[in-house]
Specification:
Layout: E1 5-9, H1 13-26, E2 38-43, E3 46-51, H2 79-84, E4 90-93, H3 100-107, E5 111-115, H4 119-132, H5 136-142, E6 146-149, H6 153-159, E7 166-169, H7 185-194, H8 200-210, E8 213-219, E9 231-234, E10 238-244
Parallel strand pairs: 1-2, 4-5, 4-7, 5-6, 7-8
Antiparallel strand pairs: 2-3, 8-10, 9-10
Length: about 250
């Protein structure tokens, strides 16, 4: 099940006009004022996804990727880079969400197509990248190597218009049943919008048909999405199951 999203705004005529345009593009109702519904809010400095009538919203934030590097560049020697492999230069992120991994891969030097099929989440990602590009060093670090597509990755791959060296999958799965804590707010709200990915297996099959390498991100304790990965790159919290075609 997914939660309906209402588009609203805070600010003047420009915010109202942008909200109306987004509501039309996303197929969401437009609402003026507070509401308890899940809301895509247009503010003077961008978009936020909010739960309830008040409180802070969530939006893409890539600041943590900067670390101590003034130029934002990331090493391919970290686990995700090792999973993508030496021969990879172009990547299709088939489940981009709020885009953190897509940006991370771009900062490693890969050319990335970030595919997100839900228009509300895709709009948040586009807006987050536009805000991040106000930082000149970030803009220089990603250059023109990252583009966002609001589409179903299976359909995009089927056209043959994009032929990536690797396809990256990070499917949305139901949260683990733990009473001790909720999932982090951003993950929880995005999951409320997009639901889970019951067709993750179909995305994997489509990726195997079109790319020589498929990388699937999993929780460290979760079973593989498909049997027989070629090799696995593990960290304390997540792992990358890598499937390489002959």
């Amino acid at each position: 099940m997914t939660a309906p999203v209402i588009v609203t705004w805070e600010g003047g005529a420009a915010a109202a006009a942008r909200a109306a345009s987004l509501a039309d593009a996303c197929g969401c109702p437009l609402h003026e004022g507070d509401t308890d519904a899940l809301r895509l809010v247009v503010t003077d400095d961008g978009l936020e996804l909010r739960e309830g009538a008040s409180g802070a919203g969530v939006r893409p934030d890539f600041a943590s990727l900067r670390g101590s590097r003034r130029d934002w560049r990331q090493s391919r020697r970290q686990p995700l880079g090792r999973a993508l492999g030496r021969g990879t230069e172009t990547v299709l992120d088939a489940t981009a969400g709020l885009g953190r991994d897509a940006v991370l891969m771009t900062l490693m030097g890969y050319a990335v197509t970030a595919v997100e099929r839900h228009p509300v989440v895709a709009a948040l990602l586009e807006d987050g990248l536009a805000r991040a590009r106000h930082d000149a060093t970030f803009a220089a670090a990603i250059g023109d190597r990252l583009r966002v597509a609001c589409a179903d990755a299976r359909e995009l791959l089927a056209t043959g218009a994009i032929q990536p060296d690797a396809v990256y999958l990070d499917p949305m799965f139901p949260p683990k049943r733990r009473a001790s804590a909720l999932a982090p707010k951003a993950i929880r709200l995005v999951r409320a919008v997009v639901g889970v990915d019951p067709d993750a297996g179909a995305h994997f099959d489509a990726a195997r048909e079109r790319a020589r390498r498929v990388v699937v991100k999993r929780h460290a304790s979760s079973p593989p999405l498909a049997p027989g990965p070629t090799f696995v790159v593990e960290t304390a919290l997540v792992r990358y199951d890598v499937y390489v075609s002959a």
